Amino acid sequence: MRYRLSHDARPQAMTLLLAAAISVVLWFIPFAEFVTYPFRIFVTFIHEGGHAIAALLTGNSVSSLSVAMNASGETYTTQGGIISQVFISSAGYVGAMAFGALLLALIRKAVAARLVLLGCGIFIFTLTMIYGLFKPIFSWSAWSGIPFTLLAGTVLSVGLVLIARFASARVATFFVSFLAVQCVLNALFDLKTVFFLSSPLELTPRATDALNMAQATGIPAIFWTVIWIFLALGILWFAMRLYVAGRDKGYQPDLPFEETPPI
Asked: What is the pTM of this model?
C-alpha cells in the first residue's frame, strides 16, 4: 500500500528532516561530538529513566540511577520475577525509541513545544534528584555516580526550562524535533552495538541489557537484541505514519517552515 504525505504534515516533516540532516552532518565534522554531547547525555537519562519507570510499574523499587561522563548509565532496581526482569531490561532501548516517537507525535498533534520542553526538564530533574541523589544517599549505594549525575541532570533540566521560557516558539519546536531525532538515532545505533556485542562469536561478553536478559531467561542475548530492534523499528514506523496521515483538527502555528493554512 502506498502512502502520500498529507499537506498539513509538510511543515512538521520539513522540520524533522532538517533536524535529522543536521544530526547526520554533525557525525562527519571533527570534534562535533562536543556539540552533540549534551543530547547524548539526555538520551542516556531517558534510557535509564525507562528502566526506572518499568521497575516501578512492575512493583519493584529503584535504589539508584547514574549517568557517567562517557554517556553510559546504570540503574539498580530490585529484580522481581522473570516477567519483571524482561520488562525492566527491555525498557531502556525500547523506552528511548518510544520517548523519541512520543516527542514526534506531540509535535504532529500541535502540542506546544514549550510545554514539551518544560515536561522534559521536569522529568530529567525528577530522575536526578530522587534516583540520582536522594535514593543513593539513603541506600548507601552508587555514591561514586552522584557528582556527575547531579551536575549533568541539573544542567540539562535548567537548560530545557530556559529554552522553553525564552526561546521563540519556532526555535523551541525545532529543539523538540532535534531531541526526538537524537533519541531515535541513538537508540538504533546503541542497538546495533549491542547486537554485535551479543554475537555468539564474541569471546568476552560485556555487561549489557541483553546479557541481563540472557541471564534471567536462559535465552541467548542476541535473540533479545533482535526482538528489541524489531520493536524499535515498529515504534519508529508508527511514529512516521503520524506524519503521513492528515490531521482532523488542530494547527501548529509555530513551526519554522509553517505554510499558511487555506482560507
From this structure: 0.84
